[in-house]
Amino acid sequence: MKTFKRLIALALVVCALFAFTACGGTDIEGTWVLTEAKMSMQGAEMDMIEMGMSMTLEIKDDGTFEMTATMPEMAGGGSDTATGEWTFEDGELTLSAGGTGDFLGTDALKLEKGKLITSATEEGMTISIVFEKE
Question: Which of 19, 33, 73, 109 could form a disulfide with 116 if both were Cys (CB 3.0 to 4.6 A apart)?
Answer without folding.
Answer: 109
